Amino acid sequence: MRKPVLPVVxxxxxxxxxxxxxxxxxxxxxVRIGVVDLELVGRKFDRKAKExxxxxxxxxxxxxxxxxxxxxxxxxDDEWKQVLALLDTPKGQRTPEQDAQLKALLDxxxxxxxxxxxxxxxxxxxxxxxxxxxxxxxxxxxPTARTADLxxxxxxxxxxxxxxxxxxxxxxxxxxxxxxxxxxxxxxFALVLEKDWVYFGGEDITEDVIKKVNEMAPPPAGTAVPxxxxxxxxGGEKPKEGDGGKPPGGGNP
Length: 253
Prior knowledge:
By secondary structure, the chain is mainly alpha-helical. The protein has one domain: Protein Binding, DinI Protein, Chain A. Helices cover 62% and strands 4% of the residues. The protein is built from seven helices and three strands; from the N terminus they run αβαααααββα. Helix 3 (46-69) runs antiparallel to helix 6 (130-187) and helix 6 (130-187) crosses helix 7 (206-216). The longest helix has 58 residues, at 130-187. The relative contact order is 0.22.
């Protein structure tokens, strides 16, 4: 004969069934994870492109300045100072008087260089007089000093380039972080990962980030730097490290 189910047991079974049903209905939603391609964001970040263009113009201008300055290495101290002051004005903005001064200084340097080469040739033949030996020594000191100055200026330019690159990178990272945070809050993402670190899954929010970052951080007016001495038309290789899609200084924005 079948035994009757005890009232306590029946009540317990009903309670468990009710809790299971309630738990199934109130289970927490799945965690939403966003994925963003920061390299692509960097390539399509309008402000980044403007900053890189300005940095390129500055760097190419500085290199052109050094190349032009190199023509005057046989100028003595006072002449060298005049050359530096005159070359401070970009080539296309110099007055005819400034161009004439530069030509006169270059001619003086060229005369010394010719004299220097003539004396070196006589020295090789063992035909130098004592006075000519002294003249050759003095002439040799001039380009040596000028070359050392050029080398220091080149090193300073490279150091400044690295500083500018680091400053630009730091300035570009904040708006990208802000854009990612804003989208995560708007769309309820608990976590946003960089695409390079995700093997599978996640919701791609790259295009949303690109749109948001360009809205939040548009290129400022007058981004381009003022023309530098000897600045040619924009072009040439950009002073960047790493992939073309990376911002100055390497890495993601």
